[in-house]
């Protein structure tokens, strides 16, 4: 009998539901129960596979739009159309150097003293006014935007979200069997998990990856890639106890470590692009609230 | 007294002083003061392929002559070393009195930003009447705190507004030309050189 071979899901089920095997004395009943749970598990796994890496660009944009709406609910856009358009021009130009140039890229500066920047799936990037005001030139702005663009291009948030959902999926399974899942409800939970990501942070390796990809993007766009290292140096020089830095430092590796890693990986390979544009004048002319 | 102002010799010395001051200011602006932020190898030229002329320790004060690519030329009086270090290994600013003073001579200087940051920070804290000192003024700090993000209500009208500022491909030729930006093909970096 093939059932005697203990399929993988039976072992898993016994591990997940120790109570089931203890209570069921009737072998047929137990096997039937396990069969059903196994089917449920398989359905769940199918769903999961469908979700993993198979989110369409449209779905990605929808998820991103929802996440950004959440962020905008926490901090509104700075009321300065000229500034917003300028940031969109710089961002669009940098994003155009990436392999996902066809996404509907949207950039914004939000009214917050916190020093931070956020990316959301589908091409959304938001920078806080606190961070913007630390910057001294367009190349630094391009560097910050390029780091966030790299997160989007590499689907870092999406991957992290899928991992979170996978964990939630399993924990729910341990209590109940797989629910059919109403789309609206799962979307709501996805948004909730996504927003939480902005306070818990991505995997450190994703941040280092975005740092390195970002400086290359900035250099491709004709900017001095070292301007981003200047931004990290500036952040590194601010008192880490500053409330403005709390979320950034909770969600990113220390700036000094990022600088060391980034510089070691760049290894002088972008030095010939360090003569790229800085555009301090254009940056100053736009200013904030002028 | 008034006559002295038109005295030729006095006028000359005033001019000399003015000229001297101009020279002094020019020199100060060209050579930045700075501090080494991480232990660094100093190279004879702006490349790691150049000969090493020594090492400087973190915290050593230096004079920065200028920048070339990702490199800054420095002089350490303390160690008698002159040469090149990576730009991120040295920080601009006069640290002689233990605290950085603003010296905005170079658009790349971080101090300008830092000073504006502290100005904003102090401005903010004084606006908040409930705050007693900067150290305890976390209440009332507007920002994307964990609580604010997690309790936020989605604002879809703001999303619409964000969309309205979007740029597009048609704007790019003008934007890049005005900023003298030229796109370059560069492969992504992976693995050792």
Folded structure, characterized:
The complex is a heterodimer of chains A (290) and B (193). Chain A is mainly α and 290 residues long. In chain A, 64% of the residues lie in helices and 5% in strands. Chain A is built from 14 helices and three strands. Chain A is elongated. Chain B has a five-stranded antiparallel beta sheet. Chain B has a two-stranded antiparallel ribbon with strand order 2-3. Chain B has helices at 8-30, 110-127, 146-150, 156-164, 172-178; strands spanning 32-36, 40-43, 52-56, 61-68, 71-76, 81-86, 90-92. In chain B, a hairpin with a 4-residue loop joins strand 5 (71-76) and strand 6 (81-86). At the A-B interface, helix 4, helix 5, strand 1, helix 9 and helix 10 of A face helix 2, helix 3, helix 4 and helix 5 of B.
What's this entry about, in short?
Chain A is mostly helical and 290 residues long. Helices cover 64% and strands 5% of the residues of chain A.
The helical percent of chain A reads 55-70%
**Got a strand count of chain A?**
3
List SSEs of chain B in N-to-C order.
HEEEEEEEHHHH
Amount of helix of chain B: 25-40%
Q: Describe the largest sheet of chain A.
A: 3 strands, mixed
- Could you name the ranges of chain B where pLDDT drops below 50 across 5 or more consecutive residues? 1-5, 97-143
User: Which strand order do you get reading across the main beta sheet of chain A?
Assistant: 1-3-2
Number of helical segments of chain B?
Answer: 5
What characterizes the major β-sheet of chain B? 5 strands, antiparallel
